[in-house]
Amino acid sequence: MRNLLHPKWLLLLNTTAIVVLALLCYGQFSVIHSLLPAGSVSTWSWLGGALAAVALSTLGYALRQWRRQREVSTLYCLLTLVVYSALICTGVSLDTELLPRDVPRWMVPTDPLVYLITFLMPTLAHAGYALVVRLTPAGKDYSVLTNVGLALAAPLSWLVLIMLPGGLLLGSILPDWLGSSLLVTGLVVGTVMFLFYLVRVVYILELRRGEYGREFSLLWKILLGIVLPLLGLMVNNGLFWGSFGGTEAGIFGNFSSPWFYGLAVLNGVLLCLPASLNRWLHLLLLFGRSVLLGYTFYFFLVFLPFLPLSLLAVILIGTGFLMLTPLVLLLVHVRELAADWQRLRPVFSGRVLLLVLLGGIGTLPLLITAHYLSDRHTLHQALDYRYAPDYSRRYDLDEPALARTLAVVKQHKDRSSGGGPFGSHVPYLSLYFNWLVLDNLTLSDTKIADLEQVFLGVLPEDTETAARTFDLPPPTVPTLTDVTTKSIYDARQQAWVSEVELRVANTDTTQRAGEYTTLLNLPAGCWVGDYYLDMNGRREHGILAEKKAAAWVYAQILNETQVRDPGLLAYQNNHQLSLRVYPVVGRASRVTGFQLLHKEPVTLLLDGRKVRLGTDAKVPVTVPVVANGGEVAYMSGIAKQRLPLVQRRPYYHFLLDVSARQQQHKQAYARRLEQQFGASVLADTTTRFTLVDAYATPVAAGANWQQELASHENTGGFYLDGALRQLLVQGFLRPRAAYPIPVVVTDDLAAAVLETDLAELRAAYPESDRFYVLDANGHLTAHSLRHEASRALFEVAAGTSLLAQAPPVRAWPTAVRPRAYLADDTLAEIVLTQPAAALRPTLAASGRWQTGLLLHGYQQWQAFHPEAAEAQRVPFVRASFQAGILTPFTAYLALENPAQKAALKQKQEQVLSGKAALDVDEGESNQPTAVPLDDYIGFLVLAAVGLALRYLLRLQPA
Known about the structure:
With about 950 residues, this protein is an alpha+beta fold. The protein has 27 helices and 25 strands. A hairpin with a 2-residue loop joins strand 10 (about 600-605) and strand 11.
């Protein structure tokens, strides 16, 4: 324990902690400073200056004492307790100055006071421990009962004051302001004295345990090391009076795992074991105790921010003493390790003992880190397979490990706290998990259910298709009232530059604040180059930002109580824009607009209005326009019609549902197929089969598909979306003179994992977007790959051949050596000249329209090469920023003030540093999301202090 007097601890517990505190607070201040009034800025400045002065003084004192090889003094401990307690109290009293109520909380989800209390408490705890050591030197006689009495004096005095008939008498004698100040001061001083004498009692008992005998020492350790920790866990988890809000909710967090109980018992047993005469067994005991030191220290950290509440907890809650167990248990634990070191020092070198000690201390953190890294690897494998698969490799995931990982993700996402603010979170460990496994992002409930359905075969509770975020609004919301356009032909880049301005207004003028939303289909070769929204008498051009970050900021602004002015323009899908403007208030109309770059004149449909952009070009685009580098080409309708017309041979490709739910039904597939298509089709060498469960397993050409079906081990859900994508991608990357007609054989299409459409892969099915489903009743229905894939379009008559009348397509560049096949229509298309070759986002183009062609060509390439999405996502987004061209991965966001823009930049950096498949929030919900520490220390500390003080003040006479 005396080692705590070494000044090196000040560098770790004070200097390092305050540097981290300063960085976190500066990050918050840099976002909101433009919204703060002059008085708040001044408060931030002088409080930060005071903290810096105190921290520098402590640093100078620590270096001075270290250089002189002296320990920290009693005066330092007393001054630290006074000054840092005053800083915390000052910060709490100035909470509305630091963070005024009109500053949106989503910009600063973690209150600055949370950081202040969290990072100053280690300094206070160290000063308290050091003061106990300084004032309790070994070799002197101390009265345990006297110190126990002094420790209980503070809570007993407060209890007596509360129980008096008049309540606290301060209000009847002194002015309100002075009475309140004395109340707070007395509470702080009483708490410090209470903790000081409590720790001192434990320290004295440890110093004099020989005097009280081994029996007393053993009973003392059993009480502190086993009984009280187990009792505390049970009280926290509600085992005596029912759980708090759920089976995994607790007052201070979710400690319901059997590991917490098992480690508590093991820790207590190791502390109770006597020193062995065998040096190796004693060394093993030292290692075990050092391993469990992490467990003791963890709970010390968990309860450290609540130490200011300990006096109130003891007064108001009978079990408040359980909060103090980690504080005194850490003292006992460190004393036992020090005693082990002293006994083993004569028989082992200091280097060996240090290695054993440090190795033990690092064991639990390393085991937890390794476990979380394993969870990260498992989760990322599943996300890659589901959202960015490499179709050239075979996946084989550990489904039980994935199930465990998803269960932990759901537990850490749960904010239903019930009886305490932590809910099912595990303090600090949940934060560490979210940082290491989820990159400080989240996994939406939709994606969790999706992964569970694919790999575990768990069907979602609600099988109905959720409404899209940007669905057309009902007719009572703001609508389009006027559209004006202006188009100029840019001869330099040989493309049109068009400005489209929209005026929107409320149909119901009594509506306070409505949101205007609309969808707009863009033809191929048309890109968005700018966006603006008029607000407060000025025109605010949109910021081109990462799409998820922009959508998150827009959603947070909509959730504010104040009326703000955001506008969002983003791709709903690869060819459909979504425009959102908020608010449209009363009779006032809003003006917004965007710039389009297009090669040929186009006609758009805006809320039922046809808008013509550009005039008939003097020189029509009759030949392919190849972007710089030759990887991407723009094929106009006229140029497409000049390509050779060819007819490819269709063949059946049967996708057989072999999910875990279909284990007992797959025997009927052969009979059903033969009845519908005939034995000759099934025996045809061109017919292909793929077994589809969580994975797509192709049956080799010429193999006995029925034998493969019978011997296949069904796994997981029916991942039809992945099987269709794999079939289409492989056909597109290796163009052939034949094309597949997909036929899905299943008893329950509703149980299939199938996206709404596969429109981004439409270049892979130029003949037709049809696929077919053969159900349990032998009915064959047609479905569309372009939209509403799960809904049947029509039923195919029995005996109808799907191979007849294959439509012709256009071969590019020649019919002899085609690289791609295009639909035989007059619509323009973007063509990848080398679809199987690598393509990187680049801006080597002669104009903005050419740059847009490169970016959108890369986006199409990425749809057929999803395995490259993760590695090239950030360069692609940066290229979009640099060019100012909107892509499906970016969004234009018009914001009102610099604070919103700073928050957008901060969120964007967080999103771009994480995995692409992870989410910022729940996707379709517009609820604000939290950041680390949101639901932890600050909430309970501030709420409990406020409630307790208000309770005590209410007891004063009126």
